[in-house]
Structures are given as C-alpha cells and as structure tokens.
Amino acid sequence: MSKWLVKIQGYEYETNIDELKQWVIEGRVLPEDMIFRQGLGWRIAKEVPALREAFEEQRKRPPSQKETSSPPSLYQPVTYQSFQAEQYTLPTLSQRFRGFLLDQLSYGLFAFPGFLLLYVQAGTAKLQGLTLEEAITSSPYILMAIGFLISLGLNVYSTCTYGRTPGKFLAGTVVLDKESKTFLSYEKSVIRELLRVSIFVALFASGGRLFWHVLVLQAILGGWLVFSPERRQLYDLLLGVNVYDISEKAEKSQEAEEAPLGRLQTALRLIQLAWRLWRD
C-alpha cells in the first residue's frame, strides 16, 4: 500500500490512505491541510479526489461525533530533510510561463478601467484639437494605481492563504517555502510579488538605451530557469522558496522535460510565443 504524508500545523505525518480517510472523517485532517503522495505531489486536502467522500462523510456527522484531537502519538512529526526534496514534483517551464503570464494579466484586468479612461481622454483631445497635457487628467492614473494595489493585495493574500495565486491555480502549481514546505509569510509574499511585477514591467515597458540592458537581464533570468535543476527563479532563490507542480499529470510532465534537450525545446517555444505577444 502506498505511503501518504499529511502536513498538520507545520509537522508531517506518514500514513496510508485508509487511515488518512479515517483522520478526515474524525476531523483531524482539515480541508486546507497539505497532502503528499508520490506522483501526485503536494495538494490541498480538499482537492485530493481520494478524500472527497471522506470529507462529505465528515460534514454529515453530528457535532458530538467529530474529533478535534491531534493525530495519534504513534505518528511522530517528521522533520523535513534535504533528501525529501525529490518527493516534491517540480513544474515544467510551460507551467512556470503560464502561471507568470496569467498573474500579470490579472493586473491588466484590474487596471483596465484606468486604461479605458486614458484612451477616451486621448481620443477626446484628438477630436477637439487639444494637446494630451490639456485633455488627460490624473484620474486614469489613479484608477490604474488602485487596480494595481487591489490585484497585488489579492495575489499576496492568496499566496499566504492557499499557496498560489489565481494564475498558479490555473497552471496547477503552488509556492512553498523551500525548507519547511509551508505557505509563505506575508512579508515574503509581498517581496516576491513586487519582484515578479518588476520583471514583467521591464519585459514590456523597456525601450531606448535601457532596451539592451533589460534584454541581457531577461536572458539571464530565462537561462537560469531553463538550466536550474530545481527550476527556481533568482528571486525564489533569494527568498528561499520554490514552485511545485500539484497537477494530476505532475510526474509525467516532469519526466517529459527532464532531459536538457526537452527543456531547450520548451524554452524555444516559449520564446517564440513571448516574441509574438510582444510584437502584437
């Protein structure tokens, strides 16, 4: 019978699927606890298909029959060791790119009212023969700033609470602390989000003399991600965090991109896609 790991209050317990279901029914494992199994990776308990019936049964039990105690002392907490890193499935380059792009699109959606107002004011200036300085007010920029702060706050909150932003949810990945495999603190989430946004702004808003400097920086960041054995971005390395694959196809996706040639092929496809997006 395959072994399972469950993380409760920062500690890991080894068990099997039958006992894990019993813990769920008794209320000892909560829906937001993290569950690990080889080939499945780390996932939130409520998203594990094998535990759905157990959670349904737990919700139907009368309050008097629900347990609130911690797991039995027979299962002592497992201190995370470096050799366990192989159990955490790493994401593919495609997943990293999709998650990054979707997260940045969320900023565009929240800032869209500001961009729309800016476009309307610029069009009005053209029709009335006014200069842009005369027609454009500070309102569009205020709306953009508000949208940016709202999106930033939502991404930080979801990273701290659920371990992933909406973009990473769609990409099937989660952000965890490298050593403890827990969700990031508020401070780390804020710093990481600001660094990611800075890279995106440099990617699409660079020009003039800075163009080649930014291009070199992007090549360094992209090359590091392609050839890094843990597929960690430089800002993840600085913060001591990493992104992991928790999708149902995690193990197969990792094997497909394990060889350097597979990574290079994926990187070339992503470069072509990014070039088309930038050109359009």
TrEMBL record:
> Which keywords belong to this entry?
Membrane, Transmembrane, Transmembrane helix
Q: Which top-level group of life is the source organism from? A: Bacteria
| Major site of localization recorded for this protein | membrane
**Region described as Disordered:** 55-74
Give the Polar residues compositional bias ranges.
65-74
Q: How does it sit in the membrane?
A: Multi-pass membrane protein
- Per UniProt, residues of the RDD domain are 91-239
Q: Does the keyword Repressor apply?
A: no
Q: Which Pfam families match?
A: RDD
* Protein's recorded name: RDD family
Q: Which organism is it from?
A: Chloracidobacterium thermophilum (strain B)
Q: What is the lineage of its organism?
A: Bacteria, Pseudomonadati, Acidobacteriota, Terriglobia, Terriglobales
